[in-house]
Amino acid sequence: MIDLSRLTISQAKEFLRQRCVSAKELVEMYFEEIKNRNNELNAYLEVFKDAFEEAEKIDLRIKNGKELKFLEGIPFALKDNILIKGKRVSAGSKILDGYIASYDAFATRKLKEAGAIFLGRTNMDEFAMGSSTENSAFGPVKNPFDLKRVAGGSSGGSACAVAANMALAALGSDTGGSIRQPSAFCGVVGLKPTYGSISRSGLIAMASSLDQIGPIAKTAEDAEMIFKAIKGKDPKDATGVDRPERPLKEKIIIGVVKEFSSGGEGIDERILKQIESASRFLDSRNFEIKEVSLPSIAYSLACYYIIAPAEISANLARYDGVRYGKQRSGEFGFGKEAKRRIILGSYVLSAGYYDAYYGKASKIRRLIKTDFEKVFNEVDILMTPTAPGPAFKIGEKIENPLAMYLSDLYTIPVNLAGLPAMSLPFGKIDDLPVGVSLIAPWFGENLLFKMGKILENAG
Amino acid sequence: MISEGEIEKLGELAKVELTREEIKNYKKDIQEILDYFETLKKVDTEGVEPLVHPLELVNSFREDEAAEIIPEESKFLVKESPDKKGDYVKVGRVLSF
Q1: I need a surface site. Which of A8, A171, A370, A399 has the fewest CB within 10 A?
Q2: What kind and span of H or E run contains A58?
Q3: So where are chain A's domains?
Q4: What average pLDDT does the structure give for chain B?
Q5: Three-class DSSP category at A406
Q6: What is the pLDDT of residue B97?
Q7: What is the rounded CA–CA span in Å between residue A344 and residue B32?
Q8: Looking at beta carbons, which residues of chain A come within 8 Å of B76?
């Protein structure tokens, strides 16, 4: 009997190849878990019954002795802002009620080409705005470790699906931490790749200079396989980049960020102990640990909450009753947080305030990026907490937007600078999983995978 | 200080209708967020070039060729538009007399 909680992509591939399990049986096993748990967890908004047909086609190919493709038969969950042709897509909003995608997202197409099976589309904060999925128009996702707590957000449904064995792997999107933070809260691995390394074609836009698609998986190796399958540039995303990965160095120096070493408002100090413990472990494995300083990083959160709403207010203009959506307000209009960010974004871009807010934030964004450039001359990789604490309670922060925004304190600088970063489960606090994040220089995903494999089993 | 009047005006400009209750709440939320932004004033940005995109991309040109139009895809898109008449997207009156 296969234990789904321990199953990885390479093991599943091996089982399929050796015909220990058929692709259809594998889908059935996941559907059984979804049937048992999705009612309480609310991770999936829709389950695709045609996954069976896809699996049967694969089984036929296996029977005929065909060689398995890279991710053939691997059951995936997709965040509901990534288009799958012919399937409904809602971005967690009622404004897209009944909308059916007319084409595949680039990442969807790459997964299809690799033979992946889609089990369903997962719940998320409306238009990916939020850190808890409480902003979903379809109710919050629950944390599989404690149903009174959030799964994190905005890719909470995808992280929960993987953690609760309702999918072997998933895709999410990350604008300020939306892959990494829910992965940390749910005890799984989440990768936010370098900006531009995966075409954003077919990803419903939130903040275009920050958004990036990435994998959520059980292990660093699984995340690596998915990243390799979906990366690439296409003509439909002019911001894509196709650059070779950085060569790996023999001796790796790990930097810990001085500005993140002390407590503060909303920070659970036990998280900082986890970083100390991870540092001790890496030190024992003969890695050099060095404290580094990024003086401008303290301004990241304020900077982000100017830039992101500015881009959001522009991106959400397309829900205008002509291109998309019937009405912007009312029952089938935008939810509370979406409207809040549209108003805030319109304000910071308005005449008379532009220079003081958007202009100033864009200059500080440069300072933050320069800090990272300098620090990567001293060290090869950075290690930080993923979130300032373990999963918080449902309802705890929803009435206080600033407190909610603070839960992305550690993840946001990475998006502002366009860097790749990966959250790995590392120990527990009060029986709840917590994550440690690694940040590599631009296009240094291979280093994240290498170090992630060392760190993921050490917590 | 941001006023309720400003929130209402921003709502009108951004085409989102706000109830009195929402205007009151957003005023409070947004004032708190703007107060938080005050910290940025301390940063010396004299002579710093703004960064509007993380990778400072160069233009990504394509060949100037007519792309093939797939009739099924166009039909699909029209079908999914909020309102339609035949093969056309139907929009509300833009000009008023």
Answers
A1: A399
A2: helix A51-63
A3: 1-254+383-459
A4: 90
A5: helix
A6: 65
A7: 11
A8: 100, 102
Strand order in the sheet with A421-429: A44-47, A117-122, A75-79, A169-174, A212-217, A189-192, A421-429, A432-439, A381-385, A253-257, A288-292
Number of H helices, E strands in chain A: 14, 13
The token pair that represents B35 in the structure block: 């107060």
Q: Where do the domains of chain B lie?
A: 4-42
Whole-angstrom Cα distance, residue B51 to residue A363? 6
DSSP state of A67: P
User: Residue A391 gets which letter from DSSP?
Assistant: P
| CATH 3.30.2010.10, domain A1-254+383-459, yes or no | no
**What is the predicted pLDDT for the residue at A358?**
97
CB-based contact A192:A180 (threshold 8 Å): yes
A152 — alpha (psi -120 to 50), left (phi > 0) or beta? left
| Known active-site residue A284 | no
Q: What share of chain B is helix, strand, coil (3-state, %, to 5)?
A: 45, 5, 50
- A104 burial via Cβ count (<10 Å: 0-12, 13-18, 19+): buried
- ipTM of the complex model: 0.92
**How far is A229 from chain B, CA to nearest CA, in Å?**
23
Q: Which long-range contacts (CB under 8 A, 24 or more apart) does A12-17 make?
A: A12/A73, A12/A74, A12/A168, A13/A68, A13/A72, A13/A73, A13/A74, A16/A58, A16/A62, A16/A68, A16/A72, A16/A73, A17/A62, A17/A68
User: Which residue of chain A comes nearest to B61, CA vs CA?
Assistant: A238
pLDDT digits (tens, 9 = 90+) for A8-59: 999 999 999 999 999 999 999 999 999 999 999 999 999 999 999 999 999 9
Buried b (16+ CB within 10 A) or exposed e, A396-408: bbbeebbbbbbbb
- Whether omega before A209 lies within 30 degrees of 0, making that bond cis, reads no
CA distance A201 to A104: 9
Place of tokens 């690596």: A224
Q: Which of A208, A422, A448, A458 is nearest to A309 (CA)?
A: A208
Measure CB to CB from residue A366 to each of B13, B39, B51 and give the nearest one. Answer: B51
Sign of CA dihedral A234, A240, A244, A246: negative
Q: Chain A residue with minimal CA distance to B57?
A: A239
CB pairs < 8 Å spanning A and B? 144
